[in-house]
Amino acid sequence: VTAVPRAMVAMAGNSNADAAAAHGDEEFFDEADAETVEIIKELIETRVRPAVAQDGGDITFRGFENGTVFLNMKGACSGCPSSTATLKHGIQNLLRHFVPEVQQVEQI
């Protein structure tokens, strides 16, 4: 009986990793979202990366799918306990404010 819930948790927990693995190191998004993706990438480059770099980290755009922006956090950000708060409260709120198509931000 416990095998089923564990399997379900494993599947649900790997969705971001699966998205990244399915696309390798390439960016992934629907061509119909190209304009939205350009705005997202511009905001990341001009507003997010400089702030994250001050703390010794880096962040890169990986993809956009079904309203979710997928980002890769590196350097000090990858192991920082505050990275989830930065991602969810700072970056997600910024992107949602300027890009209504963005519903959430996930780290992969």
TrEMBL record:
Signal peptide as annotated in the record: none
Domain NIF system FeS cluster assembly NifU C-terminal per the UniProt entry, residue ranges: 40-106
Gene3D superfamilies, sorted: Fe-S cluster assembly (FSCA)
SUPFAM superfamilies in alphabetical order: Fe-S cluster assembly (FSCA) domain-like
Pfam families: NifU
GO molecular function: iron ion binding; iron-sulfur cluster binding
GO biological process: iron-sulfur cluster assembly
Membership in a protein family: Belongs to the NifU family.
Protein name per Swiss-Prot or TrEMBL: NifU family protein
Lineage: Bacteria, Pseudomonadati, Pseudomonadota, Alphaproteobacteria, Hyphomicrobiales
